[in-house]
Amino acid sequence: MKMLDIAGTSLRRFIRDRSNLFFVVVFPMLLVLAIGLVFGGSSVPRLGVVVEESDELAAEVVASLEANDSIVVERVGERSDLEIDVERQTLSAGLAFPDDYGERILSGDTVTIDYFAQPGTIGSNVAVAVDAAIAEQATRVRAASVVAGDDGELEEALAVVDAIEGPGIEVLTVSIETDGPDFTDFGQFGFGAAQELALFVWITSLTSAAYLIENRQMGVVRRMAATPTGTGRILVGELLGRFGIAFIQASLIVVASALLFGVEWGDPVAVALLVIAYCMVGTGAGMLLGSLLNNESQSTAVGLGLGLGLAALGGAMVPLEIFSDGMKQLAHTVTPHAWLIDGITELVTGGGGVSEVLTEIAVLATAGAILIGLALLAFRRAVTTG
Question: In whole angstroms, what is the distance from residue 65 CA to residue 228 CA?
């Protein structure tokens, strides 16, 4: 069919440009990796510890830290290795006990434990966990010193304190539900992948308007229109070509992020329908832009401006949850990104299927159909009058 031939020509022309392959596949994956490493919610901080295994009091502190699910404790042999690991950021922080920690505690001396961390992370979760573990032991030691008095043995007093059964205190953990999604369900790279999907498919669709303008300027469209092909088939062929580029890029981002980073996208059918509807919006917007403008440089500048601006507003750069209610409403009014990200968020955090994202699919498909209709009218006019 001639429409498929036109679409295939557009795809081959796009693929032959090596720079397009970088920006369509490689660059989005690099950003997913960078965002996941810096902001990924599933990354657990790692605390390196230098401690003598035979020191019972130091071992108590380490055992308390190991019981904390918010950090991972790793034993390090030498203090110098610990400092290097923290400096290179292979460890989030380090804790070095002196060799005579237990002896000095039992002797009633003040003991200094060295804590290593990068600047700006002093108040991190690791530091809070370390403070809590040491404070717990310090409380026991103070109580034992009171029991021992001036002449008693602190070690024996510690055993007495541990044997005392006083009134218990139970901590009740209350789960508070919020309006926003739990982004930890996305894993370390999931939310970044969803954002890059929304961002790059949109930008690629808008900047590909330059190819439509080039075809018109070179007379390719006019020569095809002069053949028995017919204007309608040319329009549909160009439309399929633009849609194919957007859909292939979206599919590559979804598949590559799943294989490389283990991203869970949720129900595949629902994701596919969301992506198709979103690609319809990008295709319509790109074709409309390419039909209304007559200069390639101008279309590229406008496409990048609209692409980045609307992506930022739509939550493809920062989560919508940090926006005010008014900005959220504006984002859902003028951008498709907000609806796509909402849909993916619902699938990942809610674990639902197509029925849970029907609203998002319907909104995107409707917007895409309107934009495609306007684009076809504008493109037909540009072809017949140009």
Answer: 77
Going by the DSSP 8-state scheme, the letter that residue 122 receives in this structure is T
- In the three-class reduction of DSSP (H, G, I as helix; E, B as strand; rest coil), residue 114 is classed as strand
What are the DSSP calls for 266-334, one per residue?
--HHHHHHHHHHHHHHHHHHHHHHHHH---HHHHHHHHHHHHHHHHHHTTSSS-GGGS-HHHHHHHHHH
Q: Does pTM surpass 0.85? A: no
pLDDT of 322:
75
What is the C-alpha separation between 144 and 141, in angstroms, rounded?
5
Q: Which two tokens stand for residue 366?
A: 């409707």
> Of 335, 342, 306, 340, which Cα lies nearest the Cα of 321?
342
SS3 (DSSP) at 64 = helix
Q: How far, in Å, CA of 181 to CA of 62, rounded?
A: 34
Distance CA 75, CA 359 (A): 51
Three-point CA angle 68, 94, 105, nearest 5°: 80
d(CA 254, CA 196): 10
User: How are strands ordered across the β-sheet holding 93-96?
Assistant: 72-75, 46-50, 93-96, 114-117
Q: Is 379 exposed, middle or buried (0-12, 13-18, 19+ CB in 10 A)?
A: buried
Is 93 in a helix, a strand, or coil? strand
Q: From the CA atom positions of the chain, what is the Rg in Å?
A: 30
Q: Report pLDDT for 129.
A: 86
Task: Indicate the residue type of 241.
Answer: G
SS3 249: helix
CA distance 367 to 385: 27
pLDDT, residue 359, reads 95
User: What is the pLDDT, as a whole number, of residue 236?
Assistant: 77
- Tokens encoding 251: 């599919």
Cα-flanking dihedrals φ and ψ of residue 192, to 5°?
Answer: -60, -40
pLDDT at 264: 85
pLDDT of residue 358: 94
Q: Which residue stretches of the chain have pLDDT < 50?
A: 41-42, 122-123, 166-171, 173-178
Side chain identity, residue 51: V
Count of all residues that appear for the chain in the document: 386
Q: What's the half-sphere exposure (Cβ side, CA atoms, 13 Å) at 346?
A: 19
Separation between Cα atoms, residue 81 and residue 95, nearest integer Å: 12
- Please name the residues in contact with 82: beta carbons below 8 A apart, sequence gap of 6 or more: 48, 50, 76, 91, 94, 96, 116
